[in-house]
Amino acid sequence: MRTAVSLFTGCGGSDAGLSTCGFEVLMANDVLAYAKDVYEANMPETDYRLGDIRKIKSFPKADLLVGCYPCQGFSQAGVRDPSRSINYLYREFDRALRQIKPKAFIVENVAGMRRADSIHLYENQLRRFRLAGYKVKAKVLSAIDYGVPQERMRLFFVGIRSDLGETYEFPEPTHVQLSSSDDTRPFVPTLKDAIGHLPEWPTGEYDEQPFHWYYLSRNRRRGWHEVSKTIVANSRHVPLHPISPVLTRLHTDSWKFSSDAPARRLSYREAAVIQGFSDRMKFPDTCGIALRYRVVGNAVPPPLFAAVARTIPDIW
Ligand SMILES: C[S@@+](CC[C@H](N)C(=O)[O-])C[C@H]1O[C@@H](n2cnc3c(N)ncnc32)[C@H](O)[C@@H]1O
Asked: Cα(9) to centroid of ligand 1, in Å?
């Protein structure tokens, strides 16, 4: 079986994707205890090491190395500061890459890394991975194109060890939103397709904090026949469930509900399903809902990650 090592694993979006492509994940790592709890409840076979990556001295040999290092410095949702030390954790990925020397690697990160103020970090990563002996390609992909019912743009680096003589090509979109008559690809699911079967008011599974002015500074709602807005990690900013009244624009950066009918945010379980996790995903009771939303919102959508992994040439 093909083997993988997973770093910055979170609750395992990348690894859930890999498991659908026939990979066995030998080792995973994250510093967040609840991410490990969720991962182990759903994928108990992996050796998940809890702790700071900087303290891990050696990694098992594997065919593939994957990692989605933190992105707070580049993210729309985070504090945009390219000088923050958290932005340099890619060096730890590079250290593991040089030690393991896998046949291939995949990195996922936010598309904002290519903005002018952080482009030096982006280029530094490309340079390091090439110097480590890999032919590297980078591309921003839209999750919608791979059947994920959510607007989510993500940057991927894929490298293949140079001695293997292969080149990576990113996958063509596997799904379409509006099909032409000769397009046989499946439609991207809508919110109705994805979460329409789940309970309308899953008490205790959604953030009930008031909709503060910042929340209402943009349109957070999508209808049943649309795809979701981006699932974010901060529970307060998670999009509205389509059962909520429509939001109407008052003026720039100010929206209001069109009626007094009850409104709610998507639940953490709905958020997980929209990311592409199973609707039977287990969430252990070792923390409150904010951390559940966080591990889900931080994850890479498993179907997107699987699409990227599946198009690696047969070097195994
Ligand atoms: C973008 S998330 C990765 C999500 C994951 N790839 C998934 O698909 O679920 C980044 C992760 O890096 C972890 N992290 C941050 N600093 C770390 C460190 N020093 N050592 C290990 N993990 C760290 C965070 O806890 C977070 O779960």
From this structure: 6
Pocket lining: 306 vs ligand 1, CB cutoff 6 Å: no
Closest CA to 102 of 66, 76, 130: 66
Q: How far is the CA of 187 from the centre of ligand 1 (A)?
A: 32
Judge residue 46's burial from the number of C-beta atoms within 10 Å of its C-beta, 0-12 exposed, 13-18 middle, 19 or more buried: buried
Question: What is the dotted CATH code of the domain comprising 2-176+300-310?
Answer: 3.40.50.150
Q: Is the CB of 35 under 6 A from ligand 1?
A: yes
51-80 pLDDT, tens digit per residue, is: 999 999 999 999 999 999 886 655 555 555
Q: CA–CA separation, 313 vs 22, rounded Å?
A: 14
Give the start-to-end residue ranges of the domains of the chain. Answer: 2-176+300-310
For the Cβ of 14 lying below 6 angstroms from any atom of ligand 1, the answer is yes
pLDDT of residue 120: 86
